[in-house]
Specification:
With about 120 residues, this protein is mainly α. Helices cover about 65% and strands about 0% of the residues. It has one domain.
């Protein structure tokens, strides 16, 4: 059985990635070249969620980036709750997407089974 990291670990990594993204984007907006300071935790997060060499990885990554942009509207110093909620939202939406992908793949496999070709 493959290693299943606890949801809390992945959510914590998402939160760390959001804080890092907010910092890097804020520094860039201030005129500093901060792109070298991006941690790229999204790669690790997607791997832990089972999207390492998945054909849907790019689609999932695009969703992750889209959802992560919401952090720019959060004042982290004033609302750690909003940051935690966004972290959980991202985790659960990616998780739902992964379950939908698995479900679609299973339907596709069932349609392609040799037994169904003769029904």
């Amino acid at each position: 059985m493959p290693f299943q990291p606890p949801a809390e670990l992945i959510i914590s990594l998402v939160k760390d990635d959001l804080v890092n993204s907010k910092l890097v984007n804020s520094l860039s907006a201030a005129g500093l070249n901060a792109s070298d300071y991006h941690l790229h935790l999204s790669d690790t997060i997607l791997q832990l969620m089972g999207f390492s060499n998945d054909p849907y990885r790019d689609e999932v990554f695009a969703l992750y980036l889209q959802l992560s942009k919401k952090v720019q509207h959060i004042n982290i110093a004033e609302s750690s709750t909003a940051l935690a909620e966004l972290s959980m939202e991202i985790y659960y939406l990616i998780k739902v997407m992964s379950l939908q992908i698995v479900s679609e793949d299973r339907k596709s496999e069932r349609r392609e089974s040799p037994e169904e070709l003769f029904l």
